[in-house]
Amino acid sequence: MIEINGVSKFYGTSQVLKNCSVKVERGEIVVVCGPSGSGKSTLIKCVNGLEPFQEGSIQVHGIEVGDPKTDLPNLRTRIGMVFQNFELFAHLSILDNIMLAQKIVLGRSPTMAEAKAMQLLDRVGLIDHAKKFPSQLSGGQQQRVAIARALAMDPLAMLFDEPTSALDPEMVSEVLDVMTGLARDGMTMMVVTHEMGFARRVATRVIFIDQGEIVEDRPSEEFFTASHNPRTEAFLGKIL
Ligand code: ADP
Ligand code: MG
């Protein structure tokens, strides 16, 4: 579903991704972890064409992200992206937040868009909050709305960039539970997170990235039990 091949990226003269290769098969959950500034967000942004890269190639569902002929806005509508800070539209109700792109980008009728939105609100446990505005919801609830909004576009894959990092601790699990449900339903996911419990329980593979380099890429159980790389051990020692 996602194939990253020898990707290098520079900001000016500083290289932030070094010859990175990752393959994510359909239905796989790949967790990406690593120290702050190691290039995790950059890697995720390259996948949906939010950041250009200078070397290598990335294919999503067979589409070349780096090809100038690729219709990036169209590709992005098929890749769900969830950020740390929710980024809901503050002036729209929860329901309208989930309906907007369905109507404007996919051309769905208001009836269809609303039915889809309500079905997704039910799935993330927020059916009673449809008429509220984002500011009336907790951080955990807002993040679940952001996930529902991304799912409304029927994405081929979902990318998460530290979806629980901005949340109060008691709200982390409600968001991880929704993501776990998605994983069980077969969604292809790349998840940047430091939630190693989630990684161990849910991920098929865990990737550790340090200074722009993919240091490890292993099945998740093996990552936690058999990895003796000093950089990985130093990182895990700090966060576990
Ligand atoms: P992470 O998500 O792992 O914390 P990032 O991908 O955000 O790391 O950043 C990787 C490196 O790229 C960091 O050194 C960061 O300072 C640098 N960087 C990120 N965005 C930009 C930018 N727009 N311009 C210049 N440097 C950037
Ligand atoms: Mg980041």
Task: Output the keywords.
4-stranded antiparallel sheet, binds adenosine-5'-diphosphate, 6-stranded mixed sheet, binds magnesium ion, 9 helices, 240 residues, hydrolase, alpha/beta, Rossmann fold
What is this structure's SSE topology?
Layout: E1 2-11, E2 14-24, E3 29-33, H1 40-47, E4 55-60, E5 63-64, H2 72-77, E6 79-82, H3 94-104, H4 110-123, H5 139-151, E7 157-161, H6 169-184, E8 188-192, H7 196-202, E9 205-210, E10 213-219, H8 220-226, H9 230-239
Parallel strand pairs: 3-8, 3-9, 6-7, 7-8
Antiparallel strand pairs: 1-2, 1-4, 4-5, 9-10
The structure holds adenosine-5'-diphosphate and magnesium ion.
Organism: Rhizobium tropici
InterPro entries: AAA+_ATPase (IPR003593), ABC_ATPase_HisP-typ (IPR030679), ABC_transporter-like_ATP-bd (IPR003439), ABC_transporter-like_CS (IPR017871), MetN_ABC_transporter-like (IPR050086), P-loop_NTPase (IPR027417)
Membrane topology: Peripheral membrane protein
